[in-house]
Input
Amino acid sequence: MIRNGKDISSGSVVSTQVCIIGSGPAGITAAWCLQKAGIKVTLIEGSRDYGTAWKESWPDKVLLYNGVADGLFATNEPEFLILPYVGHTSPAWERERVFGGTSAHWGGQSHWAGILQAEVPHLAGFDTEMYQFVGPNYRNFATRTFDGKTIGESPVDVILNASLLNIDHTNGIVKGLRVASMDVGSSPRKATEFKVQADVYVLACGAVANAHQLLLSNAGNEHDQVGRYFMCHPLAQGSIVRITKPYLSNAQSRLMNGQTPNGDPWHDENRVGVTGRFSPDAEQQKKLGIGSCWFWSGGGQYYFEMAPNPDSRVRLADTHDPVFGQQQTRITWELTPLDETTYNQSTQLFKAAVNHLNGDVSFQSWASVKSQLVDNGHHIGTTRMSSDPTKGVVDANLKVHSLDNLYVAGSSVFATAGISNPTFTIITLSIRLAEHLSKTLGS
Ligand SMILES: Cc1cc2nc3c(=O)[nH]c(=O)nc-3n(C[C@H](O)[C@H](O)[C@H](O)COP(=O)(O)OP(=O)(O)OC[C@H]3O[C@@H](n4cnc5c(N)ncnc54)[C@H](O)[C@@H]3O)c2cc1C
Output
């Protein structure tokens, strides 16, 4: 069932067992699994159905996601918080405020170790990894089906146009949520404001907004950890790596580019394709003290694992949004010297491996690479998991340390960024969270 927050009258209370905030892959996965276990679930989403073209939600995004982006963003991606999709020259449109969340336009790529393993080329010191794309039928979590039904056709009470304003809590317990809808006419304004009361709450608004919401509500931040360790998989898109002397056979190159032996794009009956990457193996990473990265077989872009940095963070800005009057997001993206080491060491390692196969490569300088980096849509950290409440925000069950009935879903809980696209791990953690909550609420 899908309804509009504008149809819920001001002052009323929506009661449920579990309230999930945010309808991206993290929230929809948890909602689906919980309702399947017989739990009553309300899913609130701060924007609307994407309609015929999800760009209809852009006004909501600009009004409610805007803020200040500084640090490396100031030079490389000043519009990080609200980057639009169409017409932008880079692929780094970053996040959406729309039913289905950022899955409305994600690539749908994830690490896939299973196939073709015996035939891929071997580079000394590297793992050859194959990545798959989920295919058009599965990409958007608002429209894809689970057991033949979309989330809107399930028993979950989906409320669109329902923005979380505040998590009301006292003595370590969340008592309820303040939620508002808006009128998006020529002068957007608050339409209705109501409460949601639940036994358990799951915050699933994406890594930037998860931290923003906790900070707005002064929740879970006793040790000044909320918002810290903002990470991503930085991408430099120019010709960072040039193959100056070929090192792969034509057949190997085709395979790594996701092509059949004839050179056609490889895909299965669901139009799921694959492509290959080389990443330094775990032993090399440990020996060199570096993060992971991707090298494409034909050279080109460079993409890497950013090291955790407490000063790379989400805070509250001094400015306020024009609809609900709440403090906007301030986000600072900062790299550390370890990121430069990852670049220098991994490129040298790649060169040595290519030389071993009688090929050769050249690279741009770190300064040049750094000036081209974009965040690349994978927002990680900000409510990281730790068993120590002074070093993280959530415990191993994704519960906020200082609040008995508030959980966080999504890549904000990752302690490190790794190199794989994050959404499979997000989904796995949401399934695990739903299993944990089903047991807790069922007992
Ligand atoms: C260009 C691009 C390509 C990508 N490609 C891949 C890929 O190939 N593979 C991969 O694994 N990942 C990819 N990603 C990342 C992927 O999109 C995210 O990991 C995933 O969408 C995160 O899911 P989420 O549910 O945590 O957050 P989101 O999908 O961001 O959803 C958060 C939801 O919360 C809602 N919300 C926010 N604030 C509020 C509020 N106050 N009240 C109510 N609701 C609120 C938003 O409207 C949104 O619907 C890509 C991202 C981008 C930008």
Observations:
- The radius of gyration is 22 Å.
- The CA atoms of residues 356 and 396 lie 43 Å apart.
- The mean pLDDT is 92.
